[in-house]
């Protein structure tokens, strides 16, 4: 079943790419979100071609990291507490959820401690939902420039999470606006940043996100089925 669902997700991504404007012809990286799914499901997905794994929580990720026995790229897509920055930089190749200067400084310090340059995305709370993490648009540029100055961080782009609208089409204007912000950020002359990833879209809205310009999507249920709690 995982392989069949994976093929369907990939087909949907290709269909979404076909609908977007030609100026954004980048490939789309599929991050398989494995929160609450076990090692066996993860291995099945990886053996079916998944190369990138997304986890939300440090402790769950740590247990899997130590026992997975597969070579993958690890993404932290959930909120990161500053006191867990040391653990995060030891495991994750890309952290999607930097949203405060305080957190960026903690990750930078932790990465310096192990001689690593940690790749990060800055999470934007474009809908200004109080229940979600992410920096508001009017504070974004200041944080981006400060992250760019940190020796042990490399800014790789932006991430956002759309509200869980009943009508998924309501996500479209938000994703379109996020793409415009991303394009603006790409045009800036950065010191060390390599702005290449626009991470947006999950199981319920990833096709619209791709149509509007996402080049990273984070899909869990669409690949693994309902989570086992």
Give an account of the 3D structure.
- With 229 residues, the chain is α/β, with parallel strands linked by helices.
- The chain is 41% helix and 18% strand.
- An eight-stranded parallel sheet has the order 7-6-5-4-3-2-1-8.
- The two termini are 19 Å apart.
Topology, number of strands: 8
Report, as a whole number of angstroms, the end-to-end distance. Answer: 19 Å
User: What's the Cα radius of gyration?
Assistant: 17 Å
Q: Structural class of the secondary elements?
A: alpha/beta
As a percent range, the share of strand residues is 15-25%
List the main descriptive attributes of the protein structure presented here.
9 helices; eight-stranded parallel β-sheet; 229 residues; alpha/beta
């Amino acid at each position: 079943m995982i392989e069949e669902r994976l093929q369907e997700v990939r087909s949907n991504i290709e269909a979404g790419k076909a609908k977007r404007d030609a100026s954004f012809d980048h490939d789309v990286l599929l991050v398989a979100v494995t929160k609450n799914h076990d090692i066996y499901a993860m291995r099945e997905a990886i053996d079916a071609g998944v190369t990138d794994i997304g986890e939300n929580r440090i402790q769950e990720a740590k247990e899997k990291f130590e026992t997975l026995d597969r070579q993958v790229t690890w993404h932290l897509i959930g909120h990161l507490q500053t006191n867990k920055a040391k653990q995060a930089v030891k495991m994750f190749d890309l952290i999607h959820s930097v949203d405060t200067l305080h957190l960026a400084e903690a990750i930078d310090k932790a990465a310096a401690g192990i001689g690593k340059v940690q790749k990060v995305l800055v999470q934007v709370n474009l809908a200004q939902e109080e229940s979600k993490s992410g920096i508001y648009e009017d504070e974004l540029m200041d944080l981006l420039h400060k992250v760019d100055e940190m020796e042990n961080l490399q800014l790789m782009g932006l991430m956002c999470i759309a509200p869980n609208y009943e009508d998924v089409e309501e996500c479209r204007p938000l994703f379109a606006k996020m793409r415009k912000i991303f394009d603006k950020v790409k045009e800036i002359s950065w010191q060390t940043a390599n702005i290449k990833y626009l991470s947006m879209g999950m199981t319920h809205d990833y096709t619209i996100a791709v149509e509007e310009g996402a080049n990273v999507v984070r899909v869990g249920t669409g690949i693994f089925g309902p989570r086992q709690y």
